[in-house]
Design goal:
The complex is a heterodimer of chains A (68) and B (199). Chain A is mainly alpha-helical and 68 residues long. Helices cover 50% and strands 9% of the residues of chain A. In chain A, α1 crosses α2. In chain A, 4% of the residues are buried. Chain B starts with a strand and ends with a helix. Classes of the chains: A mainly alpha (68), B alpha+beta (199). The interface between A and B is medium-sized, with 15 and 18 residues.
Chain lengths: 68, 199
């Protein structure tokens, strides 16, 4: 296992609720959810910096919505 | 990056040998592996009909490293032996929802390949065996580290479907949403345990 570093985070009530809700929904620890958020944020940030767009597509209507 | 000892089978000597599992393959290591694999592949392809060419023969691990190696969500693993990379794996730790148990998250294998000289498809005398199995075991371990209890998933090339089935992965059929319409496979926690421990 690679070396790990520790960080302390203070969250607002809304952020804490979101974290708790996601952890329960995904059956993951809160730390795992935070890691997922960081990985996804970096992925989106790098690809957008390279000129790509983030788009969601509805399964029903196949309509695309530009998110970022 | 970390290195640990693993065992693979030297088929020519018919004995288990110690290899190194590289967790966090560097761009330099990927470049060297790609150079070795491309040269070897070229030699084999000249001698066999096109329909027998490996489906992953066109994969460029250096290019993959440049694309994914900078992102925290992806991890490169390699099995090194006799100063050459014998196999490589790119794993995504951007967790997905399991299609078998929709309440659970799963780690996804993006690419997994053995070196050309280890492929029975290319040669009657492959050098090493168990390289793919070591990489599947590595993915299972990473899944445990991520809190996914050994669950892993991937889309398999047709030539590799038999291998993943033999590992105990469940074939969930053609994924219509996959760009190459490949079959999607998942390994459950139970199957992962059986794969690692035999029971």
């Amino acid at each position: 296992m690679a070396e790990k570093r520790t960080v302390m985070v203070q969250l607002s009530e809304a952020e804490w609720d979101a974290l708790e809700s996601l952890a329960e929904k995904k059956d993951l620890s809160k730390v795992a959810v935070m890691r997922q958020a960081l990985r996804l944020y970096q992925l989106v940030d790098v690809r957008m910096a390279e000129g790509e767009k983030l788009i969601f597509e509805s399964k029903k209507s196949k309509k695309e919505v530009l998110v970022l | 990056m970390s290195r640990s000892a693993v065992k693979i089978l030297n088929l020519r000597a018919n004995r288990l040998v110690t290899a190194t599992l590289v967790s966090g393959v560097s761009i330099r290591e990927a470049q060297i592996a790609q150079m070795h694999w491309s040269r070897a592949l070229q030699k084999y392809l000249e001698a066999i009909p096109k329909e027998k060419w490996p489906e992953h023969g066109g994969w460029d691990w250096e290019a993959k490293h440049k694309k994914y190696g900078r992102l925290a969500a992806y991890r490169f693993y390699g099995v090194e032996c006799a100063n050459k990379m014998q196999g490589m794996l790119l794993l995504s730790t951007l967790l997905r929802t399991s299609r078998i148990d929709k309440k659970k998250q799963i780690v996804y294998g993006v690419y997994l390949a053995s070196a050309p000289w280890n492929l029975r498809l290319l040669t009657d005398a492959p050098e090493y065996s168990l390289v793919g199995s070591v990489l599947v075991a590595t993915a299972i371990q990473a899944s445990h580290d991520e809190g996914c209890e050994g669950r892993i998933s991937l889309h398999a090339l047709e030539q590799s479907e038999g291998f993943y089935k033999s590992c105990g992965m469940k074939d969930l059929g053609v994924d219509e949403e996959h760009e190459n319409r490949l079959k999607y496979f998942e390994m459950t926690t139970k199957a992962a345990k059986i794969f690692l421990t035999g029971k």
